[in-house]
Amino acid sequence: xxxxxxxxxxxxxxxxxxxxxxxxxxxxxxxxxxxxxxxxxxxxxxxxxxxxxxxxxxxxxxxxxxxxxxxxxxxxxxxxxxxxxxxxxxxxxxxxxxxxxxxxxxxxxxxxxxxxxxxxxxxxxxxxxxxxxxxxxxxxxxxxxxxxxxxxxxxxxxxxxxxxxxxxxxxxxxxxxxxxxxxxxxxxxxxxxxxxxxxxxxxxxxxxxxxxxxxxxxxxxxxxxxxxxxxxxxxxxxxxxxxxxxxxxxxxxxxxxxxxxxxxxxxxxxxxxxxxxxxxxxxxxxxxxxxxxxxxxxxxxxxxxxxxxxxxxxxxxxxxxxxxxxxxxxxxxxxxxxxxxxxxxxxxxxxxxxxxxxxxxxxxxxxxxxxxxxxxxxxxxxxxxxxxxxxxxxxxxxxxxxxxxxxxxxxxxxxxxxxxxxxxxxxxxxxxxxx
Length: 435
Hints:
By secondary structure, the chain is an all-alpha fold. It contains 15 helices and no strands.
């Protein structure tokens, strides 16, 4: 009976969260589809050059949301409402600081940032437009992620899912409206994406209107120690998100040298598919986080481990299904984004999908395990796995393998990195003391 209850709780939280995370990832996937149809190869290249900055903003919000909400969940189980309110309030303060940082970059440095990303010619102005608007709307992305995490950890995963899906559907509708009937081009695409988190927050406001929230904003000065603990726990969520952006950035620079804008556009298809796949695994990781943090706060070790087992089994079966689907339907998938039937783009993207997505067999477990360590306040192993995936392995591997094997080397850097991190994660898990 106890295990049956655990399974029901696991299915409830993870299903709702996976659906919501797929919704969020569709912000960019919808842009990719409509931009490919409306603006062709140059539009795809511009979007792909700008995605790392979107990932940084989105990841910053997740870092605050996951870090704050994990701590909130543990203190709530320990019946410490005063500390819960302090955690929420200081998370809001950190959101203000990060929002101001991104706004200043958007207002004063968007052109320099576009140059730094190596955008040229027609692609330059499109990339600059996308970056400027995304940075100006950064507070919406940051606070949407904070509120989604707190509402989910406050026992309302259903509303969190509706908010994520509501934002996504609004984005898809506005993408079509702005790009085709209104002919707004790249500006329309980015405005559609930027409006989505605002719609999401309007839906989340129901949690406050109904007065069913157990966390409150209180009058207090910002507390540095409180903030750093939240950042420390949430940091793996930032790295998980930003690593996608960093990989895209590095791969873009390498592919520009190997095959020019067509290579970057082909990678745009792969990168956006990858964001959706990773969002499914991130959804499972974020879905089990409240359950694990709550079990940890109550000292229920078996409940905690059982939830992790459910997560890893789910990830394993999904990984196999996703790779089989990607392998056999690579040509059809690429065709959806290839408006001009560019033979070179089609060939590069299909080969890339076959090699790159081998990493799917490992990446889900790595994300789950990193989130598990963070959920029980074991931040160091979570940081180590995240940093190895995001920086320490994949960047040197991408440069080395591309030098030795050309474009195939670029595609294999991701699966090799995730495979090595899978082994490292296993070692950490068997050495960790839960309490």
